[in-house]
Design goal:
The complex is a heterotrimer of chains A (about 290), B (about 525) and C (about 350). Chain B has 15 helices and 21 strands. In chain B, the strands form six sheets. Chain B has a six-stranded mixed beta sheet. Chain B has a five-stranded mixed beta sheet with strand order 8-9-10-1-11, with helices on both faces. In chain B, helix 14 packs antiparallel against helix 15. Chain C is globular and about 85 Å long. Helix content of chain C is about 80%, strand content about 0%.
């Protein structure tokens, strides 16, 4: 049953996905739209997102201000647009930093096995045993609040997952014939790891990472929400919701639109992630 | 397989019915008109009245009583009302105060109020050296002359009657409680003379007080018999409780919601004079704020009226100096800086600082929306004159710690101050007296001339109020000349409550509601 | 089997020590002296110095660590600097509140999520499947704060059917005494026979449980669906089908069973995750649980509380995963050999 789908190439699968999987297309559209928004925010935003104007403070949505204004009279629509940049950056940075740390750890642990593996995995276990937001909060508190510190803190809490996943794949790939023959030929182990093992074992990690993209945005927003993430003048959706927490009941637009933005982006990212997983999954054909 | 399905559906139906049942067969939720609910934002940590120095007074002020109550009118003559002492006098030399205690007063645990009991309370508070004990600095000895006469002797003339009205460190508690000590108190026990006794403390959830039948003030039918302090941490939830009638008072409100709530006929907003004021202290020893002209530029770049009227949405007045408008000693003629970016620019040029030196850090309490907005506005205005401001919000513990260390201290730090008892010297010494190791003098201000003026004022306070005021106001002028801080807001305290509660008479000296004075005007639903 | 259990327990202990050490180092590095927070409005420098002396904060780091470990082994985590109560008491109170919330949320997520996932798998590519998938992907994306506040505003504010916050009615707490046996209000009120109190506890659980369980419900739906689909494509299913076994039988008897075991792992992870991740729900509904306690402890650098809470959550998380692993091995004969 599984022999036939080796014949579908990646691009064929992608084309197939776009044609048949509507949800993937939706995710793609959303992701691309937000990317465009993030890139062009400075041009398409109708107002300066930092312009304070007390005369129009807390104004309801109108033709002048599509999403209304916040407590300092700033245009929320423009701020939401600019916030896209921050959120996309968050997802990309956290996931890449986590991969940057996690991949080498998982690779080395899986390849060398034995003592090295045990020590590294125990360390990973320690990190994984921490309550989810504890490490990010503690690290951010130690380094001082701020978006980049928060992102680093998140990446540090995340990498053990990737290390573990990669390690499992590496252990399997290590036994493959082409790896064994390279070893027999006396090839430099680092070369083997980088040239043969790594490229063939990254699929599960990539799948996980693509699904995590949405989640990291939520985590960063939660950190900002409790005051441990982005600070002004950074424009971040979680920070916007946090600042309007106490007046939300009366002035719903101050929290609703940033929240909606988070929702749509994370939803789109998740759909996209699901699609990428389907794309890279060796049993893809059977699941259609 | 069949069985699994059956179990599944059966469980589902059972749970569903339990849930539905609990919703619709709820016990009668109409509230007793004699119960009042106060939504507070934190649980009590220190039950010991000798130690309590924070939001506990909200509760403790209804359980315990001091010798004397402060009953001032805004800005005018201060009036002290008898509490546990029905009269008092001071000797010729101003060093011995005599208090005549009320008869027939009992503590909640049955002990009688005697001078010996009062002496025991105060002695313990002073020796424990916790909380606000230092208000009794001047006291050399306390004597119980007879059963109901208490003498307090001081080493230099001090306004002991005023000090005895403090909301911290001045409560009289039962001698048996004093024996039990802090441990006994912190298990959730109390024994005062006040109208309410502690009935229940459910950690992190609620505190319940109930009427003390033998209270010396007596009881009338319409008074409140039960007070429930509910711990509600989110401001939005507190507001919902208030609107639903499930809470009568709230403690956390965004300034921007007040006007909306005011329009609601079921809610009443009482404005009260308060002695709280806010300022941003400027670090006089850290570059570039160690440059006087640079500091002058900063104080002229602050938009005083916009902050007071817009950011604080009318719940603050523009401050004139450090002594608030509503307290004696306030100088209404004091010349203070105004918002003038041109002037600020001139001072900036005079400072002689290079463009890349024009950077400051501003620290403030992250949880305060007012600080946040004011700081962002300030950052904006500073940018217009070429000063870059980095904002560092954080929890108070963190920013205070950083500010006490010269290396990590910010150039400006937020501060809200109120006195332990009613005297201008509290601000003048607490915030600006020279400190070898900074405690609250986060401006790092060290001016001997200033210190002398304040010390002189304190010596005069008990016997020559006018003379003390002269000294205090001179000291204040020095603060303005040296631009040690941005004095920007005299805070107006608001109390929001259900409109059917009458008798709310807020008092700037006490951060509490005296529930004994409340009555309902109409029956609750 | 016994040997495996012992080995795993020893490993767990080692990991816990690792967690505690890292937390210790982190909290010492955290800025902000905890002492200042606990002394109230305007402590004097002398009071601060004295308190630090009393708490032993002036001793060298290694000594403090040693002292801490010594006490911790005997179950003494000291007193919280914020509440002044023994940390173990604080954590027990808080932990049981969170456990009640999280357990019910997980049960609800399973109860609703599992059947939905199965249906989606069985009716793959139909409208039902699409709707379920869309819904679950969307549910995971909703910011929790929003959901909680919206539910609060609607069911409590507008309809007035459910309470706004808290674990139980104030009046009930006062007038219906029930001893705290397990810490779970549902169980304790039933044990005490107080039906009114029980009903009140149920009412207060509804909104927080709904809010907390939504995201996990969605995850369980998705995981169940994909694992079920994978199971149904296994060779042995085709064989059984060839034998003419009815569809329903195949789905529920074979495919589902195969799915349940890996699902256990997800359940374990979700449970552990929710323990510390319930912070926002606890904030919105004033649920006196562990999440809020932890944030408060970190922000105030309440060192003993931080250590105590971390220990409890890490311990619970590791224990649950250990149990799940053992259950996994017990249920799946294929794994017993390895």
């Amino acid at each position: 049953m599984s022999a036939a789908d080796d014949e579908l190439t990646l691009s064929e699968r992608a084309g197939d996905l776009i044609k048949h999987n509507r949800l993937f297309v939706v995710g793609l559209i959303i992701a691309v739209s937000f990317l465009l928004i993030a890139l062009t925010a400075s041009w398409i935003a109708p107002h300066d997102p930092q312009a304070i104007d007390f005369d129009t403070k807390l104004a309801a949505p109108s033709s002048q201000h599509f999403f209304g204004t916040d407590v300092l009279g700033r245009d929320i629509f423009s701020r939401v647009l600019h916030g896209a940049r921050t959120s996309l950056l968050t997802g990309v940075l956290v996931v890449s930093m986590a991969l940057l740390i996690g991949l080498p750890v998982g690779l080395i642990a899986g390849y060398y096995g034995g003592r090295v593996d045990m020590v590294m995995m125990r360390i990973a276990d320690v990190f994984l045993a921490f309550p989810p937001l504890l490490l990010p909060i503690a690290i951010t508190a130690a380094l001082g609040p701020g978006l980049y510190n928060a992102l680093m803190a998140l990446a540090v809490s995340w990498f053990p997952w990737y290390a573990r996943i990669l390690r499992s794949s590496v252990i399997a790939v290590k036994e493959e014939l082409f790896v064994k023959s390279s070893q027999a030929m006396g090839m430099n182990p680092i070369r083997i790891m980088l040239k043969h093992v790594l490229p063939n074992s990254t699929t599960p990690v990539i799948v996980q990472a693509s699904m995590d993209f949405g989640y990291t945005i939520l985590a960063a927003a939660s950190l900002s929400f409790i005051g441990m993430g982005a600070r002004p003048p950074t424009i971040e959706w979680g920070l916007m919701i946090s600042s309007s927490r106490s007046i939300f009941l009366e002035y719903w637009w101050t929290a609703f639109f940033p929240g909606l933005a988070i929702f749509i982006l994370v939803w789109g990212a998740n759909l996209l992630g699901d699609g990428i997983r389907d794309l890279l999954d060796p049993h893809y054909k059977d699941k259609r | 397989m069949q069985r699994v399905f059956q179990i599944f559906w059966a469980t589902g139906i059972l749970v569903f019915s339990v849930v539905l049942g609990s919703i619709f067969f709820a016990p009668d939720r109409t509230r007793d008109a004699h119960t009042v609910v106060y939504a507070t934002y934190g649980d009590i940590k220190d039950w010991d009245p000798a130690v309590a120095f924070s939001l506990e007074v909200m509760v403790l002020a209804n359980i315990y009583e001091p010798l004397v109550y402060y009953d001032g009118r805004a800005g005018g003559e201060q009036v002290l009302r008898p509490a546990l002492a029905k009269s008092w006098s001071v000797s010729e030399d101003g060093l011995v105060w005599t208090f005549h205690l009320r008869e027939g007063v009992t503590f909640h645990d049955g002990e009688k109020l005697t001078a010996a009991a009062a002496k025991k309370s105060l002695d313990r508070t002073i020796t424990l050296e916790k909380g606000g004990f230092y208000i009794w600095e001047a006291v050399s000895e306390i004597r119980a002359v007879d059963e109901l006469t208490l003498e307090i002797e001081t080493s230099f003339p001090a306004p002991v009657d005023l000090i005895a009205s403090s909301q911290y460190a001045a409560y009289i508690y039962s001698p048996a409680a004093a024996e039990g000590g802090t441990e006994w108190f912190n298990q959730g026990n109390a024994a005062g003379t006040g109208p309410y006794r502690l009935r229940q403390w459910d950690r992190n959830q609620q505190i319940v007080l109930e009427k003390f039948d033998a209270y010396w003030g007596g009881w009338e039918a319409e008074q409140m018999t039960r007070v429930i302090f509910k711990i509600v941490r989110e401001s939005a939830t507190q507001v919902q409780l208030l609107l639903a009638g499930e809470a009568d008072f709230l403690s956390l409100i965004s300034v921007d919601l007040v006007s909306a709530l005011e329009r609601n006929p079921e809610i009443q907003v009482d404005y009260i004079p308060s002695w709280k004021n806010s300022q941003f202290l400027l670090n006089t020893q850290k570059a570039p704020t160690n440059n006087l002209n640079f500091r002058k530029a900063l104080v002229h770049a602050w938009d005083y009226s916009t902050v007071a009227n817009q950011v604080y949405a009318g719940s603050a007045d523009v401050a004139r100096g450090i002594i608030p408008k509503s307290l004696w000693g306030h100088d209404a003629t004091l010349e203070t800086p105004v918002f003038d970016l041109e002037k600020a620019r001139q001072y900036l040029e005079q400072s002689g600082l290079a463009p890349d030196e024009r950077k400051i850090t501003i620290a403030y309490i992250a949880a305060s929306e007012a600080y946040q907005s004011a700081a962002e506005l300030f950052q904006n205005n500073l940018a217009q004159i070429g000063i870059e401001a980095e904002l560092n919000p954080g929890p108070w513990g963190t920013i205070w710690d950083a500010a006490k260390n010269p290396a990590s201290a910010p150039n400006a730090i937020s501060m809200t101050w109120w006195p332990t008892y009613a005297t201008p010297s509290d601000w003048l010494t607490g915030l600006f007296r020279t400190e070898a190791q900074p405690n609250f003098n986060l401006s790092y201000y060290a001016n001997p001339a200033y210190d002398q003026l304040v010390a002189a004022g304190i010596q005069l306070e008990a016997t020559n109020r006018e003379g003390a005021i002269v000294k205090y106001q001179a000291a204040q002028r020095l603060l303005i000349e040296d631009a040690v801080a941005i004095f920007y807001a005299d805070l107006k305290e608001r109390v929001l409550h259900r409109a059917d509660l009458e008798g709310v008479r807020p008092n700037p000296a006490y951060n509490t509601i005296f529930f004994y004075e409340l009555r309902r005007s109409a029956p609750t639903l | 089997m016994i040997r495996t259990i012992l080995q795993r327990l020893a490993l767990m202990g080692l990991i816990l020590i690792g967690v505690m050490t890292v937390t210790f180092v982190l909290s010492r590095v955290l800025p902000g002296s905890p002492v200042e927070m606990m002394l109230g409005a305007k402590p004097t420098p002398e009071q601060i110095a004295q308190a630090e002396e009393e708490l032993g904060l002036n001793k060298p780091l290694l000594t403090q660590y040693g002292l801490f470990l010594g006490d911790a082994v005997r179950g003494d985590f000291g007193e919280s600097l914020i509440t002044g109560q023994p940390v173990t008491d604080d954590v027990f109170l808080r932990a049981t509140a969170t456990l009640e919330l999280v357990t019910l949320a997980l049960l609800l997520a399973l109860f609703v999520g599992l059947p939905l996932g199965v249906q989606a798998a069985v009716k793959k590519e139909t409208a039902v499947d699409h709707a379920v998938r869309m819904g679950s992907v969307a549910a995971v994306a909703v910011p929790v704060f929003f959901l909680g506040l919206l539910l609060q505003m609607f069911f409590a504010g507008k309809l007035g059917l459910l309470p706004l916050q808290g674990r139980i009615d104030s009046g009930v707490l006062l007038d219906y005494a029930f001893p705290r046996v397990t810490g779970s209000y549902l169980i304790d009120t039933l044990l005490a026979g107080e039906i009114g109190a029980f009903a009140s506890a149920v009412r207060h659980l509804i909104l927080p449980v709904l809010t907390l369980s939504l995201a996990s419900m969605a995850t369980i739906v998705r995981v169940t669906r994909s694992m079920m689909i994978e199971a149904m494509q296994q060779d042995y299913i085709a064989t059984v089908r060839a034998y003419g076994v009815p569809q329903k039988h195949i789905h529920y008897r074979y495919a589902l069973k195969a799915t349940l075991i890996p699902l256990l792992t997800v359940v374990g992870l979700t449970y552990g995750f929710m323990l510390g991740g319930s912070i926002i729900v606890e904030f919105v509904f004033d649920w006196p649980g562990v999440g809020g306690y932890m944030v408060q402890a970190l922000l105030n650098n309440d060192f003993p509380a931080v250590m105590g809470v971390t220990f409890f959550i890490a311990f619970a998380y590791l224990l649950i995963n250990l149990l799940i692993d053992l259950l996994y091995q017990a249920l799946d004969p294929r794994l017993r050999k390895s």
